[in-house]
Specification:
single chain; about 200 residues; alpha/beta
């Protein structure tokens, strides 16, 4: 399974790198997953909201089955980050097109607001960082007060560290609870909060 973690200038580092490490640890344990850091415009380097500069793997993979989007900079309307990406429109348009093509999309923290800007959470269950809940509701989502919300082909997670729980849930959803537990033990992270599932 190919998973793209989409980054951009002003993204929150933990939103992206937490899930990336979980998924790559799963790969190291034998899971058939390839998780890559990508940029929409193919830029080779991005700078996170806390100043970390990252080299990325390349542009989006057209064969990716899941795209994870971090947040950062939404609630304070920063000049770079999720808010700026939402205003520019190219990333929400990309997410909408990939979703229409059958790709599952996932938002971490205020990355969910980029899914909302793309129209992908309207009438759907979702969660975001607590400071953006009112924005999410205003975009027509059904807010579920859970750590992770699994609404089928739209996955969302609350603030920052919940991206770890999202990635562990992705492992469990596709490869079973044993591998998710093994990765959790390897990174010494105790899963937190509940997971709301549409099919539960």
């Amino acid at each position: 399974m190919k998973i793209d973690v989409m980054v951009f200038d002003g993204f929150d580092e933990l939103d992206a790198l937490g899930p990336l490490e979980v998924l790559r640890t799963g790969r190291d344990m034998g899971v058939d997953v390839v998780a890559s850091l990508v940029t929409l415009d193919g830029a080779a380097m991005v700078t996170g909201s806390h100043g970390v500069r990252l080299l990325v793997d390349g542009p989006p993979d057209e064969n990716a089955e899941l795209v994870i989007v971090p947040g950062g900079g939404w609630s304070d309307r920063a000049a770079q980050g999720a808010w700026a990406q939402g205003q520019l429109g190219a990333l929400p348009d990309f997410l909408a097109a990939r979703h229409s093509a059958g790709v599952t999309v996932a938002g971490v923290c205020t990355g969910t607001m980029l899914l909302a800007t793309a129209g992908l959470t309207t009438g759907r269950s979702a969660i975001t960082h607590h400071t953006a809940i009112s924005d999410l509701e205003a975009n027509g989502a059904i807010v579920r007060r859970a750590r992770v919300v699994d609404d089928g082909d739209v996955l969302t997670a609350g603030g920052v560290t919940s991206g770890l729980d999202l990635a562990l849930w992705i492992l469990e959803r596709h490869w079973g609870s044993d591998i998710a537990e093994a990765v959790s033990q390897e990174i010494e992270y105790s899963r937190k909060g509940d997971i709301w599932r549409r099919d539960a």
